[in-house]
């Protein structure tokens, strides 16, 4: 018998689809995925219900997709690199209590995301869920805008993480050679080099990506201890009272509370984006169960690691003003050197960070390209016929991967002319992703409030679903507003957070394109869905 895309004569064992090597070659030549990569029967049922054909390899399992999520978000690494934002607005107390609040809040957000991922495990993620769950009158437009938000957010995320890794290398050079002139174009070249490495990894070594993600997860965990142990042993300690109760308002806001809310950008950036695994869902075995478990496990693992790093830093950072004024541009590099009094030790500790952030850029490229490919598959972007193409034999969206490289290069060039503009692009990552969460969770919440049936799922929030959705929305709305705030007052051209301009411009462009062309070409995912609701 045949089921979906499973051909006659295939052997089914333990829910897995198997085939001969000769059969694999035949499928590759036809541009389809080999039967052994089609996943479980549950995956086949999901793809059939969603109206999709399996064209990507399902070679991610729980550990590899857990590693994917943990290393892409790089929570403790991002806390180190963006430490100056939180210390300027909020101080140690603001960082610690802010991280607790943000971790709990995003736990609720990604619990909501995990449930929707179990309902519809598709690479489209948020824009697919909006298409299914939004009121019929606004389904198509809301889905389209959400697709643009996700595509924009993840393309900008590649620039963000590569820029951090590149400028950290420049900071190390400054530490070791004070005569070095911190040129912006040097940073841009490093961004391009790191992204190119990530692109090569996502093409020629794409088959090895799940295995590598498991290895990188080990580095992610072990690297944390390689950094914090020297700090525990060698650094002087701040008092617990100072760490947990002293706030800072160097940004000149009207209160410590406002300053702390603005400074949450450090912890928000460190905990946002666990939907990355969703966009790999068509490459995960038994996705409707494995994916939500991996999402929530990644949130917990990174939350714990991030909290350990944050507590360690706050107790061992020394004088705040001196490290904020470090010539390296990164307070954590100065903390490492002040603690070890060794250039070699500082170089090694910082190199660990560069390695993990470079690994994060690999996973960023994978996520961004799959999101772009999925949206192009539904004719959501210009040149969709090119971007939706999956290379036969490779079974990866190669054109979408290469477009991610081009976009990153173009955006990184902005740094040569203006660091303010590039910072706005980095902020656009946060605001775009938060918007996609707000819309998708809002749509599923509306269905719950109306008592409408939801699709069957193997991972469910049960009777707490509505309460968790409401709490997630209540958390997202204020942090979305504060994400547009500048870091300090009075606001000048150089200190303005211009992400509001870029965000508005993107929404306007997507809307205009929708009415001119998108509404005629875009295929809303709900139009392809074929299943009975519970």
Per the CATH scheme, the topology name is: Amino acid/polyamine transporter I
Number of DSSP helical runs: 22
Q: Which structural category do the helix and sheet elements fall into?
A: mainly alpha
- Element pattern in H and E: EEHHHHHHHHHHHHHHHHHHHHHH
* Number of DSSP E strands: 2
Radius of gyration: 23 Å
Shape: globular
Q: Walk across the major sheet and give the strand order.
A: 1-2
Gross CATH architecture? Up-down Bundle
CATH class category name: Mainly Alpha
Domain count: the total is: 1
Q: Which band does the percent of strand residues land in?
A: under 5%
Mean pLDDT: 89
Let me know the largest β-sheet: 2 strands, antiparallel
Q: What gap, in angstroms, lies between the N and C termini? A: 27 Å
CATH homologous group name: Amino acid/polyamine transporter I
Percentage of helical residues?
Answer: 55-70%
Structure explained in plain terms:
The protein is an all-alpha fold. It has a single domain, classed as Up-down Bundle (Amino acid/polyamine transporter I), CATH 1.20.1740.10. The chain contains 22 helices and 2 strands. Helix 6 runs parallel beside helix 13. The longest helix has 38 residues. It is globular, with a radius of gyration of 23 Å. The chain starts with 10 loop residues before the first strand and ends in a 13-residue tail after the last helix. The N terminus is likely disordered.
């Amino acid at each position: 018998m045949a089921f979906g895309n499973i051909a006659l004569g295939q052997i089914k064992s333990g829910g897995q689809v198997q085939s001969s090597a000769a059969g694999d070659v035949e499928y590759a030549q036809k541009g389809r995925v080999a039967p052994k990569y089609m996943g479980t029967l549950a995956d086949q049922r999901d793809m059939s219900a969603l109206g999709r054909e399996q064209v990507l390899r399902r070679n991610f399992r729980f550990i590899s997709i857990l590693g994917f999520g943990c290393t892409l978000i790089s929570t403790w690494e991002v806390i180190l690199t963006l430490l100056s934002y939180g210390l300027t607005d909020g101080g140690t107390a603001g960082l610690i209590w802010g991280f607790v609040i943000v971790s709990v809040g995003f736990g609720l957000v990604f619990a909501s995301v995990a449930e929707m991922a179990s309902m519809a495990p598709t690479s489209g993620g948020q824009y697919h869920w909006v298409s299914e769950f939004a009121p019929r009158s606004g389904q198509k437009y809301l889905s389209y805008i959400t697709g643009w938000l996700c595509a924009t957010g993840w393309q900008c995320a590649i620039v963000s993480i590569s820029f951090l890794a590149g400028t950290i290398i420049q900071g190390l050079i400054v530490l070791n050679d004070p005569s070095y002139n911190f040129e912006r174009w040097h940073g841009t070249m490093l961004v391009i080099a790191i992204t190119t490495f990530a692109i090569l990894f996502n093409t020629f070594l794409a088959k090895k990506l799940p295995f590598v993600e498991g290895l990188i997860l080990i580095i992610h965990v072990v690297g944390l201890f390689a950094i914090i142990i020297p700090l525990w042993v060698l650094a002087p300690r701040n008092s617990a009272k100072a760490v947990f109760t002293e706030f800072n308002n160097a940004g000149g806001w009207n209160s410590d509370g406002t300053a702390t809310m603005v400074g949450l950008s450090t912890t928000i950036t460190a905990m946002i984006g666990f939907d990355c695994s969703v966009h790999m869902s068509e490459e995960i075995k038994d996705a409707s169960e494995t994916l939500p478990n991996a999402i929530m496990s990644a949130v917990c693992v990174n939350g714990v690691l991030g909290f350990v790093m944050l507590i360690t830093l706050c107790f061992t950072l020394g004088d705040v003003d001196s490290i904020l004024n470090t010539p390296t541009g990164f307070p954590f590099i100065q903390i490492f050197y002040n603690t070890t009094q060794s250039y070699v030790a500082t170089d090694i500790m910082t190199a660990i960070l560069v390695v993990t952030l470079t690994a994060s850029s690999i996973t960023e490229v994978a996520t961004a390209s799959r999101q772009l490919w999925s949206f192009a598959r539904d004719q959501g972007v210009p040149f969709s016929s090119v971007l939706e193409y999956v290379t036969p034999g490779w079974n990866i969206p190669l054109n979408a991967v290469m477009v991610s490289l081009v976009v990153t290069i173009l955006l990184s060039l902005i740094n040569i002319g203006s660091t303010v503009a590039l910072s706005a692009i980095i902020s656009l990552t946060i605001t775009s992703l938060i918007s996609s969460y707000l819309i998708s969770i809002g749509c599923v919440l509306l269905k719950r409030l109306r008592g409408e049936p939801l699709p069957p799922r193997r991972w469910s929030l049960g009777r707490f679903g509505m309460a968790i959705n409401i709490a997630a929305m209540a958390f997202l709305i204020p942090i979305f507003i504060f994400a547009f705030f500048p870091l300090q007052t009075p606001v000048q051209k150089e200190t303005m957070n211009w992400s509001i301009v870029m965000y508005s411009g993107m929404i306007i462009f997507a809307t205009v394109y929708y009415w001119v062309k998108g509404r005629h070409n875009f295929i809303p995912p709900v139009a392809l869905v074929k299943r009975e609701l519970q």
